[in-house]
Amino acid sequence: MKPTSSKMRDVPPLSTKQNMLWNSAGSMTYLACQWLVTVLVVRLSAGYDDAGLLSLAMSVVGIFGTFANYKMGTYQISDIRRENDLAEYLGFRCLTLGLAFVACMVYAYLTCAPYALATIALFFVFKAVGLLIDILHGADQQHRRMDYIGKSFIAQGLSTLAAFVAVFWFTRNLNLAIVGMTASALGVLVLFDIPKAGQFERVCLRLSRSKALFFLKVSFPAVLASLAASAIFAIPKQYLAMTSGDAALGIYASVAAPALVIQMGAMYLYGPLLDVFPRHFFDGDLSGFLKLLGKTIGGIVLVGIACSIVLELVGSWALQLLFGSSIEPYVYLLQPIILSTILTAFLWFFGDLLITLRNFKANFIGNIVALVSVLAVTFPFVNLWDMNGVSFAGAVACLAGVLTLLGFLIATVRRGPARAHGGNGERTDG
């Protein structure tokens, strides 16, 4: 895409290794800071009620944040022919954010306690800022400058953590603390991400009716798939909160927080490659595609094994150090959580990979299989195993989804790039 402003300049791309290192460093820093928020909300408050309320807000917003995302991040990154520009992606993101907020609050009003509504609304706004930044990160990745992404994540992580601690420490008010996090994220957006992305393309909003309809149509199966994926753990968590209370959900979320490193670490491993996979595939380099696929699967497995071993050795000690001795009776929850997070990582990877190959239908079917599975097992599993039932239900659902997606991926690769280009009718010249 040609620059449209004199302020724009050619910025040399970084190597794949450099991009992966920067993305991983920044993303892991951000993840660690967000995890510390879930730790400190327990440490700075009395009991697990605030932690449970925050976890509930995260779960509900996660469902509709997925709709707001509309899988545009993955679609934008793999838009190797530049069929759409940054202004159009930003315009569409604002549209979906508005629609998702309305849907989220209607859902929360119907399914959550009244006292939780304000927290859910405020947390949605916080996530909305991150989703706007995500589109700017897409432009950074398209131009192979993921050092900007890494630095942004570091700034977001440290500033939002500091804001949360400062506000919650003085006020003991979860809602005000979320407002503080939102203000910090906005600062990073305005002061860092907009100027950096502006080096490549003009940062503005533009969205025609025809382009909006195109985006809505082309990614709709992927959105439904993402909603299904978000619900895999949100449904059993909500059922746990209904049957056992916010404190039980807070305990589960506290124990689960360290294990999230596995699935997020996997995402940070394959995320920088989502524009590389389609280049290999659609250029007919199936050997390069399969070699990269094997390395990525191996990397995810190694991340899972390494994290599992570390958490098995020091998990109990670490949890007690972070949350106090009151968490010790619940350490038994950790291993089932680890299993479910590894399977979740593979569900995400195979789903995103199929999107980059423009097989939206396969991604949709795989995640719907997972959703149907979790609906079938949530109630008996949570009733039988209580907090562990959340992990068992999620693991069964993710395994069913992974096997389905893997089958479609094999079929897509066998068909080859020629049929993948137009076989599903998703690609267009814009």
Automatic annotation (TrEMBL):
This protein's UniProt keywords: Cell membrane, Membrane, Transmembrane, Transmembrane helix
Subcellular location: Cell membrane
Main location: membrane
Membrane topology recorded in Swiss-Prot or TrEMBL: Multi-pass membrane protein
Transmembrane annotation, as ranges: 21-45, 51-70, 90-110, 116-136, 148-170, 176-194, 214-235, 247-271, 292-318, 330-350, 362-385, 391-411
Pfam families (UniProt xref): Polysacc_synt
Organism encoding this protein: Eggerthella lenta
GO-annotated cellular components: plasma membrane
Name the UniProt record assigns to this protein: Oligosaccharide flippase family protein
InterPro entries registered for this protein in UniProt: Poly_Biosynth_Transport, Polysacc_synth
Keyword Membrane: yes
Keyword Transmembrane helix included in the entry's annotation: yes
PANTHER family: O-ANTIGEN TRANSPORTER-RELATED, PST FAMILY PREDICTED COLANIC ACID TRANSPORTER
